[in-house]
Amino acid sequence: xxxxxxxxxxxxxxxxxxxxxxxxxxxxxxxxxxxxxxxxxxxxxxxxxxxxxxxxxxxxxxxxxxxxxxxxxxxxxxxxxxxxxxxxxxxxxxxxxxxxxxxxxxxxxxxxxxxxxxxxxxxxxxxxxxxxxxxxxxxxxxxxxxxxxxxxxxxxxxxxxxxxxxxxxxxxxxxxxxxxxxxxxxxxxxxxxxxxxxxxxxxxxxxxxxxxxxxxxxxxxxxxxxxxxxxxxxxxxxxxxxxxxxxxxxxxxxxxxxxxxxxxxxxxxxxxxxxxxxxxxxxxxxxxxxxxxxxxxxxxxxxxxxxxxxxxxxxxxxxxxxxxxxxxxxxxxxxxxxxxxxxxxxxxxxxxxxxxxxxxxxxxxxxxxxxxxxxxxxxxxxxxxxxxxxxxxxxxxxxxxxxxxxxxxxxxxxxxxxxxxxxxxxxxxxxxxxxxxxxxxxxxxxxxxxxxxxxxxxxxxxxxxxxxxxxxxxxxxxxxxxxxxxxxxxxxxxxxxxxxxxxxxxxxxxxxxxxxxxxxxxxxxxxxxxxxxxxxxxxxxxxxxxxxxxxxxxxxxxxxxxxxxxxxxxxxxxxxxxxxxxxxxxxxxxxxxxxxxxxxxxxxxxxxxxxxxxxxxxxxxxxxxxxxxxxxxxxxxxxxxxxxxxxxxxxxxxxxxxxxxxxxxxxxxxxxxxxxxxxxxxxxxxxxxxxxxxxxxxxxxxxxxxxxxxxxxxxxxxxxxxxxxxxxxxxxxxxxxxxxxxxxxxxxxxxxxxxxxxxxxxxxxxxxxxxxxxxxxxxx
Length: 780
Hints:
Blueprint: H1 9-27, E1 29-38, E2 49-52, E3 58-60, E4 66-72, E5 74-81, E6 88-94, E7 98-99, E8 102-104, H2 112-121, E9 133-136, H3 138-143, H4 153-157, E10 163-165, E11 173-175, E12 183-187, E13 190-191, E14 196-197, E15 202-203, E16 210-216, E17 230-236, E18 245-251, E19 254-264, E20 268-277, H5 279-283, H6 289-292, E21 295-308, E22 313-328, E23 332-348, E24 353-372, E25 375-395, E26 400-420, E27 429-430, E28 434-448, E29 453-467, E30 470-475, E31 481-487, E32 492-510, E33 513-524, E34 526-529, E35 540-543, E36 551-564, E37 569-586, E38 602-618, E39 623-638, E40 647-648, E41 655-664, E42 669-678, E43 682-683, E44 688-692, E45 695-699, E46 706-707, E47 711-724, E48 729-737, E49 747-752, E50 760-765, E51 771-779
Parallel strand pairs: 1-7, 1-8, 12-17
Antiparallel strand pairs: 1-4, 2-3, 2-5, 5-6, 9-16, 10-11, 12-13, 14-15, 16-17, 18-19, 18-51, 19-20, 20-21, 21-22, 22-23, 23-24, 24-25, 25-26, 26-27, 26-28, 28-29, 29-32, 30-31, 32-33, 33-36, 34-35, 36-37, 37-38, 38-39, 39-40, 39-41, 41-42, 42-47, 43-46, 44-45, 47-48, 48-51, 49-50
């Protein structure tokens, strides 16, 4: 006998609800988010990795140390790692959303096995999609020997593949065929228009104030824009919110001091870093009045304050102030410098949405004074920016990371103002001020399609408004003005719209190797007018006008990346091709500094650059360092130059090689050396000469058709730890620049032979042979 029992409707609904409730709970996902900081000083850590052990799930912290990762309910072991820090592992039970701030300890030099494991994971990222990126640690910058012993970010990045030095002792650089003005240099998001001290022998960046240095040579993320070739993104230290400290150093020609500490422990901090050279002090000892009245020094000051306003808000205020003064008695003087200021507000809207709002100020100016004979005049030039930026980062699950935002920059350019005395042979002139508005919106998404395949795709839309007031010109093919147009204050002269697509793909073969490819379009509306091979203080910045169009570049790059020997070594191979539109060069005999209608002196055309870059880096052990090699070609084709045929750009160099080594001899001594070789820059030399009125006049045919001699040198450095205590550490740093005394060519000029004027002599000028230095550094 069968007994059948029917379930009542309430019971059926209850069981159905329990079934779906269990199914929903099984699929429920929660988010772990927070900030990663240093336990020692409270500094947020950029690029720290947070990953689930034994699972292909992980994220990295953004530029403010924030992270967010989402996964299914359960219990997980989460590993947190960062270069130079001890790894940490947390056990997290995910039954709800969790906010977990993480504090990492610095690695101890005595624990060698920990150093190896931590740094091994700190190699180049095999996963992800980013191509053409290089990162430098402050330790590497500190130990690499450079000119006059001053640790220098810009000179150190020139030792990396694809980044070329602009010349002997110069902080200017070229990236993948671009000119020096095609590099966007950012200090806490503020544009730095001239990053050089003392005519390029020092950079404006004091290494004691720097937390993070990242260079993008290609595949730039969509939040960056405004330059064709590269982005150098430098972040300043936030300041120690745990304890007060003072550090500094005294060298042969400069001294520096760094003070930092908490305003309110755990909540707020300050940082003040200053530096000054004192070559002028020695000049005053000269009995020659024209010498002891001379000026030759620079100073700079970095300052920053950070405040935690609550669990979801943080405020940063930072600034840079730098000035150079160079003068010879009362006859000649030039002063130039940068001022930047940044106010940033971080806000966490939710566990997945992070926001940063920035108000940024940037100013670069120079003043030239000449008082000699009948010449008595001053020249002043300035470029000033106000920038408002809004950036958002949305962690949309484990597979998507979305960034979007906008920016608006108001540019004000004073190209040149000449004021002279009544008795001067030079007349006072006032070149017109130029005004413009540069706007951009962007969106980009990184999609982890699988454990092996990743995509980053995005779009940046830019609009550049050329504004009045002032006169604007139309010119013919010969550079003659054929029409003058006058505009009122704030009137739109020209509007340029440009779309900048970004696409990157990464495929990971296994845990140690991957291949990546990227395409990026960039536009540039601020242009440097200079006949020199690198930036000088009196270079002239101009914005796009009705005639000077935005420069445009399209770059494709492909790379292969391999971590070797259990991540102790890394190998990088990248190749690229870049085409460029609206490139600027000069008419023969151009005068660009006193001409208000500068468009009459310029020619426009296209460019191309392509090359292969190789980097082998050793990250662990007593000996660390790298070998880099670049094979490249850079050309321009501009109607009116070189018979309208392709010609070498002035920054074209075939071969660049750098070998860098850092060796920890023992607990007290660290040795370092670097050897550099590169093909000479392309240069224009005379093809012949003739005599006019008893004076020799040279004539030129092929633009950049010759080469400077090849350049090479060896530098050596050594650091001795004097004291290493909890409250005080001191060290001596020695360096020798150009160890084997190579007389590299700085310039080559031509003159008639004294005995036979029909013969022409080439005269080489060399700057440095041997340059020793020593400095004493301390911290307490």
